[in-house]
Amino acid sequence: MKVAVVGGGVVGLTTTLLLQRELRNAEMTVLASNFDDTVSHVAAGIFRVGASYSGPTEQITRQWIKDSYEYYDNIRKSEEASHAGVTNISGYIFANSSLSTVKSHWIEDLVPIYRRATEEELQLVGGDWKYGSYFSTLLTQCSLYLPWAKRQLQANGVTLRRRKLHSLNELADEFDLVMNCTGFGARELCNDKRMVSLRGQVIKVKAPWLKTFFYGELDTYVIPGFHGVVTLGGSRSFDSENTNLCPYESAAIRQRCNALVPSLKNAEIVRQEVGLRPHRESNVRVEVDRIRDDRSNEATVVHNYGHGGYGVCTAPGTAMYALRLAMDTHRSSIAKL
Q: Is 236 annotated as a binding residue?
C-alpha cells in the first residue's frame, strides 16, 4: 500500500507518525512545498482550546481534544520529552469583560488543575482585573517537536519530499491513500471557499526568569517556552494574507504585554514572526473523499485541515480520527474484492 501525507506542518507530521505505527508495511511519503516555514513554527504551542473551535459534533470535538492531550502527555512522560519539546506549564488568564472569558468548556475537566483565581492572584500582574482563572496544561514547542517528528519518521523509513501540488488529483496514479493535511493550502487544492486566513503576529523575547504564562484581553498573551524564549502576542486579522511584519502591530503587542507583565519591559527581542492560521468557517474538515486523474486512476483521500489557531493542540486527535476513517475505508474496499 502506498500512502501520501500532504502537508509538512504539525498536522501533517503528527498524522504521519500515527499512520506509520498502524500501517507498518505501507510505503509512506510526506509531500510538502516547504517543511521549514509553516504556521506551526510560529505557534507558541500551549494546550488551550478556544470556544470557537469546532468539529462535526460536540462529542467528536471533545474526543479529538482528549486524544490530543493524552498523546502529548504520553510524550511528556517519556524519555523523548525534552527532544520533542513537550513539557508542563501553568499560568493565568485574566479578563474584565465576563467570567465566561476565563473559562474553557473544552479543557476544564481535562487538565490537572483549572480553578478560579484568588483575589491576591488577580493582583499578580498589571491591570485591574475582575475575573481570572489559574490552570496547568501542556506546552509543545514546534521548533523542537517538528524536527523530532521528522527524525522519527525518517528513522522508520518514511520519505520526506518537497513537491508543489496544483491538485490532489495528481496523486491518484501514484498512491492508494492520500491524507490531506494542507491547512490553508486546501483553499486552492480543494477549492474550499470556507477556508479563510487568520493572520497572526508574535514577538519572541529572551526572558529566562519567566516560568508562568499569562493571558489578558485584546488577544494579549505571554507564554514561556524552552531555552528562556517567551512568546508575546498577538493578533488576529481576519482574511488577511499579508505575511510582512507590521511595526505598528509589534509596538502594540509589546505595549500590551509590558503592561501585563512589567518585568518584560527590557527583555531582548530574539525575532518577530507572522503566520496565517488556517481557519475554516463551520468546522474542521476530517472526512473521506475520492480523487481521480485524467486517466481515470482513483485513490482514497482523507481530509484533515482547517484547525485555525488550534492545529498544535488538536492535531493528534484529528489525526487519530482521520486514521480510523482511512482504515474503515480500506477494510471496506478489501471486503468488496
A: no
